[in-house]
Amino acid sequence: MTTVTVAQYRLPADAVVAAEIIRDLAPLVAATRAEPGNRGIEVIQEDADPARLVLVERWADPAALAAHRSTAHFIDGIVGSIAPRLIGREVVIGTAMDLVTGSAQSVGAADDESSAAAAE
Length: 120
Prior knowledge:
Alpha-Beta Plaits; alpha+beta
């Protein structure tokens, strides 16, 4: 079963701070891609709203995601540095559904900025 996280980040209006956040994400994305159990991570900047970033991560299983959330680059980089500079953040964690083969799994809970921060 593949575990998927979709995180929506709202960048601040200050263009300098927004550019710093994007710059600071680059090494964190590289470190995440190198983790065992990571099946991919993409950062998408919305064309119609460049202040909105969407991060999509795919993990081998819930244990791989849990291990990721205990790494220094997640705790220090995302929770400690990136998240406090964002205007908003929403994270959805779920299980990938294969609707073609019929092996659909139910989607997990969503958490908003406050509950995501508490869980991290």
